[in-house]
Amino acid sequence: MKPDEIAKLTKFLRAKFELPSLALRKRPQKNDSAEVYIGDEFIGVIFRDEEDGELSYNFSMAILEIDLDE
Question: Per-residue pLDDT averaged across 13-35, rounded?
Answer without folding.
Answer: 95
